[in-house]
Design brief:
single chain; alpha/beta; Rossmann fold; 4 helices; 7 strands
């Protein structure tokens, strides 16, 4: 993120959900969205809202154990990756990350810091953190 990154926004779950749906509605494929943040900060919740806003009608679940989920949407496919369990750079090859990133699709990457070198320069970076002052809120930084 650059020095021009705006300060984080403190959002309730409902506000985060609404923000994610609006963000998803604004996306145009191809697009890569890098989601980073602490464990339990809401990356999957935000990915679900983005998918809903983009037009995914089916339930969106965490790909923690399968690593990649693909969803249909009216404008393009959506790939949802969770890299938490990947232990090394070669593991990215095993899930076909380069092929996925080359698709005319929306690609949501949770734990994106594990693929930093492989993400395109134009990836949108969304960082979530717990709000120490209010545990019911999350801090969202858009970079």
């Amino acid at each position: 993120m650059s020095a021009r990154t705006p300060p984080p926004r403190a959002l309730s779950r409902e506000e985060l959900d609404a923000w994610g749906a609006d963000f998803g509605a604004s996306l145009r494929a191809p697009a890569v969205v890098a989601l980073t943040g602490e464990l339990g900060a809401g990356k999957t919740t935000l990915a679900q809202a983005i998918c809903r806003g983009y037009g995914v009608a089916e339930p969106v679940t965490s790909p923690t154990f399968t690593l990649v989920h693909e969803y249909a949407a009216p404008r393009s496919p959506v790939y949802h990756l969770d890299l938490y369990r990947l232990a090394s750079e070669p593991a990215l090859d095993s899930i076909g990350i380069d092929e996925i990133l080359a698709q005319p699709a929306v690609v949501l990457v949770e734990w994106a810091e594990r693929a930093r070198e492989r993400l395109p320069a134009g990836a949108r970076h969304l960082v979530l953190a717990h709000d120490a002052g209010d545990p019911s809120r999350r801090l969202l930084t858009v970079g």
